[in-house]
Backbone:
């Protein structure tokens, strides 16, 4: 290890002078370590390359040290055995971080959602998509929901088509004209049952102002489709979801 100097002769417990290869890296007042013993440097004899030391400081005990024992300043140097735990000694560039492992896990949940990624994992990527400004009182889109797409889908010839898979709306940013009825067709391309429900202007699910496809509140089985007529009579930005998958399948309808 760089900076470690070796004793040039064996040191008895009573010795207070350490003859070294070099004293260049030591200063008066340093606490140095030799084996398990700590010593305080009282004076430095540069001409003789020797340290005058107080033995057995900081609760350690003066002991015998063999010829060649390493002397180092534990405040900024460590003596290491290289290549332990079946690893190989390797060169390390200047600036390499030296960690005192194992690294304890961070506080809190290990899901990564709170900004603290689990060991070895990157934080979750920011979800693509937009953050819509919903009309007041609309249900909050859960964090687990599919992203709201930037791509806006409008009716063609009075029909808006919403394909669905397991478990997402293939398009989920819809836009319709105020006071203009539109056929909303959901096409279940998946295996699971799905539907599409707006909470409506009151923001509450399963109330009289809901709009749902199928309109009778049932679900569309895999491979099936359903249509209902939507008559938007209040402008705003409304959420919709699938009642079967209320944590993931969400979208918005803008009425203007
Ligand atoms: Cu669903």
Residues:
């Amino acid at each position: 290890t760089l900076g470690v100097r070796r004793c040039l002769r064996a040191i008895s417990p009573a010795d207070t002078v350490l003859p070294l290869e070099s004293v260049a890296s030591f200063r008066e007042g340093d606490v140095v370590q030799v084996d398990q013993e700590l010593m305080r440097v009282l004076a430095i004899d540069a001409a003789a390359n020797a340290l005058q030391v107080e033995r057995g400081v900081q609760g350690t005990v003066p002991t015998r040290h063999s010829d060649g024992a390493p002397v180092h300043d534990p405040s900024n140097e460590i003596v290491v055995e290289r290549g332990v735990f079946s690893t190989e000694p390797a060169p390390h560039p200047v600036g390499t971080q030296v960690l005192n492992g194992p690294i304890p896990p961070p506080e809190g949940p290990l899901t990564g959602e709170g900004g603290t990624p689990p060991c070895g994992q990157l934080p979750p990527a920011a979800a693509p998509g937009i953050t819509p400004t919903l009309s007041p009182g609309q249900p909050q889109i859960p964090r687990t929901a599919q992203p709201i797409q930037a791509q806006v889908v409008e009716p063609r010839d009075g029909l808006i088509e919403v394909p669905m898979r397991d478990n997402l709306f293939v398009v989920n940013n819809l836009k319709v004209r105020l006071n203009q009825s539109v056929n909303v067709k959901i096409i279940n391309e998946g295996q699971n049952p799905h539907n599409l429900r707006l909470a409506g202007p009151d923001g509450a699910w399963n109330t009289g102002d809901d709009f749902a496809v199928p309109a009778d509140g049932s679900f569309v089985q895999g491979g099936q489709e359903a249509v209902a007529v939507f008559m938007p009579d209040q402008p705003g930005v409304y959420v919709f979801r699938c009642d079967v998958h209320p944590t993931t399948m969400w979208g918005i309808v803008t009425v203007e």
Residues 143 and 247 are 8 Å apart (CA to CA). The radius of gyration is 37 Å. The mean pLDDT is 88. Residues 5-72 form one domain.
